[in-house]
Amino acid sequence: MNELSQTPPAEAGEQRITRPGLLEAWRERVAYQALSLGLVCALVALALLLGNQLTRQRIADAELQDRLAVLRQVLPQSLYDNNPLADAYRIEDAELGMLEVYPARREGQLTATAFQVSTIGYGGPIVQLIALDSEGRILGVRVLSHKETPGLADKIEVARSDWIKGFDGLSLASTPLDQWAVKKDGGQFDQFAGATITPRAIVKGVLRALEFQARQSTAQSNQETRP
Amino acid sequence: MSSQCGSADVTAPKPKGLFNYFSSALWDYNVALVQMLALCPALAVTTTATNGLGMGLATTLVLMITNAIISALRHSISPAVRNPLMIGIIAGVVTLIDMAINAWMHELYKVLGLFIALIVTNCAVLGRAESFCSRNPVLPSILDGAGMGIGFTWVLVVIGGIREILGSGTLFAQASLLLGEHFHWLEITVFPDFQGILLAILPPGAFIVLGFVLAFKRVIDRRRAERRVRTHGELIVLQ
């Protein structure tokens, strides 16, 4: 940081001497320095507080719209008349960790469920949204956020490639467990040239969501048959 | 001036008038190409021309605001604590702009969001505060910020444009997200059905393209100097 100050532009300089006495003397005092630093920090903090007040609601609204737009991509409008975002809940799963569940209901009946799942890819967590209908078929998968290599692994985005649509219609019943892997691992899903870890993470996330729903429904039917 | 282009030893030009603060920053004292500052964001965001443009404009805005504030406070800032003070102000302004873009230009924020916070670490902003605003009145400081920012912007757009054409075969893709629907005509597909040279989009591509842009600027500067020697009969060593 000191390098920056070593070469003052002499010709652009303005004589500080013209500013007389008092301020000059004060500036050298520790108390002045500490106070000015504290004052500026306080003012900046105040400005940030005000800025946050002004923008918080709008940002929250915009993010809600974003999530609704993605949800519409995986959940056909005909399947629900509720607001899945409002009915969303978080659930802790032993295998998946925290996941968010968006239930889609029509006339009170559960028709489909969208799961927000996070798996670890090559560049960090990949957050994906997986929608399953009540029979456990995949309605759609979308990647919400990722930090994978652009050009190599970003084909998981629906804007760049149709690869992610290859999951549509599959279910645990239609595809045997050992096929839920990329081709390199002996499964049925394509990897990308130069990127295997990314599609592997997606397949893993989808499979986990399917298994989670299967576990839940067996648990539910056990509960129902017990009494 | 030595031919080394390291750090901020390129000082402000001799002012021939207020406008000169602005114009000299565009080429002769360009932040990225001459002062070699701000290369981290310059290399990181320039995968497309649109990203470069957005980052450049955001940086310009930050530079103008922080330059004005720091210049206005220059007499009361004690040299001993100036760096934390300036960083505090710069970080505050950047965060406010980040929130404002997120709230009122949300589509743009989805494209640029990750990079706006990076402006805090853009050493060009602190560099101008330190070497220019702490010694100059408010108006020249604002002009300096605008010039430095726009000088930075055009370099980002050029690097981004070259990388985008080579890497994806398009130019200004998604520009309407940044500038509004009226700018749809800017979005050009240069090579349809082009697979793209992956290298251009990856980080090494940024360094290679930057190298070519630097070399090109040197060639132009040399031509200009030679022409000046011929017409004025004097030798002006630019670098």
UniProtKB/TrEMBL annotation, chain A:
Its EC number is 7.-.-.-. The keyword Cell inner membrane applies. InterPro entries: FMN-bd, Ion_transpt_RnfG/RsxG. One of its GO terms (cellular component) is plasma membrane. It is a single-pass membrane protein. One of its GO terms (biological process) is electron transport chain. The chain crosses the membrane at residues 30-50. It is found in: Cell inner membrane. Keywords: Cell inner membrane, Cell membrane, Electron transport, Flavoprotein, FMN, Membrane, Phosphoprotein, Translocase, Transmembrane, Transmembrane helix, Transport. Pfam families: FMN_bind. The modification FMN phosphoryl threonine is found at T196. Part of a membrane-bound complex that couples electron transfer with translocation of ions across the membrane. This is Ion-translocating oxidoreductase complex subunit G. It comes from Stutzerimonas stutzeri (Pseudomonas stutzeri). The gene is rnfG.
Automatic annotation (TrEMBL), chain B:
One of its GO terms (biological process) is electron transport chain. The keyword Cell membrane applies. The chain crosses the membrane at residues 26-46, 52-73, 85-105, 111-129, 141-162, 194-216. Its EC number is 7.-.-.-. GO terms for cellular component: endomembrane system; plasma membrane. Pfam families: Rnf-Nqr. Keywords: Cell inner membrane, Cell membrane, Electron transport, Membrane, Translocase, Transmembrane, Transmembrane helix, Transport. It is an enzyme of class 7 (translocase). It is a multi-pass membrane protein. It is found in: Cell inner membrane; Endomembrane system. It comes from the Bacteria. HAMAP family: RsxE_RnfE. Part of a membrane-bound complex that couples electron transfer with translocation of ions across the membrane. The complex is composed of six subunits: RnfA, RnfB, RnfC, RnfD, RnfE and RnfG. Belongs to the NqrDE/RnfAE family. PANTHER family: ELECTRON TRANSPORT COMPLEX PROTEIN RNFE (PTHR30586), ION-TRANSLOCATING OXIDOREDUCTASE COMPLEX SUBUNIT E (PTHR30586:SF0). This is Ion-translocating oxidoreductase complex subunit E. It comes from Stutzerimonas stutzeri (Pseudomonas stutzeri).
